Amino acid sequence: MTKKLLLSSVFGPFGVDDAFGHKENLMELFHNQVTKAQGIASLRFHHRSFGLYFLAENVRAPVTVLDFPSRNDFERELKRQRYDAVGISFIVPNFLKAKEMARLVRQHQPEAQILLGGHGAAIEGIENLIDCDHVVRGEGIRWLRQYLGEDPHAPIHHPTLISAEHKRLFGIPTPGACGLLVPGVGCVNGCRFCATSHFFGRTYTPFFASGHALFEQLCRMSNELGTQEFFVMDENFLKDKTRAQELLSCMEENHRPFSFAVFSSAETIEAFGVENLARLGVFFLWIGAESKHETYDKNKGRNLQALIRNLRDHGIAVLVSGILFLEHHRPDTISQDIDYLIDLQGVFTQFMMFTPLPGTQLYKQYKRQNRIDFDLPFEQWHGQHLLNFHHPHFTRAQATQWLQEAFQQEFDRNSSSVYRMTETYLRGYETLASLGNRDPWLRHRSHQMLDRAQELRILLPTLRHFAHDELERARINTLEARFDATLGSLDPTSRALQLAAFGIANAHALRCRFRRDLDQPRFSRTRYRWPSPMHRWQQSLESLAAGLRKPSEQPIG
Ligand code: SF4
Question: What ipTM score was computed for the predicted complex, to two decimals?
Fold first, then answer.
């Protein structure tokens, strides 16, 4: 008999102090760990729990996906529908929530099997800490197909998903949808702290092995979503240069100029070439700089500052990721690394606490050395508040203070990320327009860059009004003058939009004075392959009719 499956992310609310979590663990990527010091200028958006939709899309069984339910929503679902298995996806800081959900499953549906997945499944001995039947580590689609008795090697169906939702800047909803593309999972580099690389066994599993296959998926999803922009959720999409190059050729041959936000590393960017990235349509890039003194192979011998400047010259908004509280950091030397990361002049900077996470090489090493602070509950193992290991030179309180100051200094010196992003897109337009004189494809890319710059230009009066300080205000004035000189003054419609944006931002700022600007991800319930009520009626009438037939009338076989 076909198994019925419930797949769920952990329950909210998030970012609050309660029995299951802490206020420091927000469910917003940028506001949690990138633009957190930038107040009202912080970038706000939510992501869905993409893995659950991939799993649901790639099996034949009836599946219900609950994404960001409340505890009550989850319990209500367990009371409403019988399931054969309930899958719970969680990360380490949500350990207590997963545990509570498993308890609720046993209480309401004792016959259902409990499947634990996500990065939280890497916690050592998780099977003894949370009541469950299976722990799924690594790529989950093949595992789930096998569990259901289906073909694990059937082709992957890519679900059509929006990458970020409820996007806001200064409380203003930002236009345009960006789709999600997942070419594959894992990374072969195996940096010692990297949970993702280790979770997937330091291998890369492509979902789509060729550029042609990716192009087909992009065309389909672009038509369905009405967008040309995609966030590429792949640890190092450009590492397979042949595939990326083939995708670019398909796009050029078919005049489909998709644009991408990607993760990459310095070695790969250099191999692919910055101008080639602009051809591909990359407009955002996340790069791990990590630390000036602890050099990983991906960064060895490379001038990251020059590379990042070149990327921004081509209209690519770079997010620089760095690690604090490495072994060589001391109170008198950590500021060198903070300065180094700030001086790389990314559009965004992420500072992460060095965190030995379960499953990583670092975790094994620190556990052997008895350095992990197991007194710190898992809810705090997220790298944005407290160290989860004993650092010889920093107390917990000192580390928290240093982290806050790093974000603050970055904001003080480089101004808001929105300002930097606007400046980058204008700069990119100028570069690509000049390259486009001899290359129609790059000319088209320059027009796309122009649209991005003009969209953000609408926010300049708002940015100036809420400027962090005089330095940022002066930078915004200079940028506005550059816009006027390059593109002329704004038309009346754009001026009206500027006024509207300014009004919304002021209303939002006023609201934020009276309550915490905490936004919870929206709950969604999605059903896959459940028979419709009409179909169920038909089935029961058919079985009733079959029961009334004489034995000789029963279908044979
Ligand atoms: S390159 Fe990035 S994704 Fe790959 S192992 Fe290193 S940190 Fe992880």
Answer: 0.99
Q: Are residues 410 and 428 in the same domain?
A: no
Tens-digit pLDDT profile for residues 444-497: 999 999 999 999 999 999 999 999 999 999 999 999 999 999 999 999 999 999
Number of domains into which the chain is organized: 3
pLDDT of 554: 37
User: Does the CA dihedral 141-356-285-462 come out positive or negative?
Assistant: positive
Q: Is there a single domain that holds both residue 111 and residue 206?
A: no
User: Is residue 242 situated within a structural domain?
Assistant: yes
> Does residue 217 share a domain with residue 90?
no
**Measured from the CB, is residue 329 less than 6 Å from ligand 1?**
no
Pocket test for ligand 1, best of 185, 193, 197 (most atoms within 8 A of CB): 197
* Same-domain status, 218 and 78: no
pLDDT (0 to 100) of residue 195? 95
The pLDDT tens digits of the residues spanning 365-385 come to: 999 999 999 999 999 999 999
User: Does the Cβ of 196 fall within 6 Å of ligand 1?
Assistant: yes
Question: What is the 197 CA–ligand 1 centroid distance (Å)?
Answer: 6
Nearest-angstrom CA–CA distance, 362 and 116: 23
Domain with 440, as residue range(s), is 423-511
Residue 313 CB partners (closer than 8 Å, separation 6+): 427, 428, 431
- Regarding the beta carbon of 13 and ligand 1, being less than 6 Å apart is answered no
CA nearest 380: which of 357, 404, 408, 405? 357
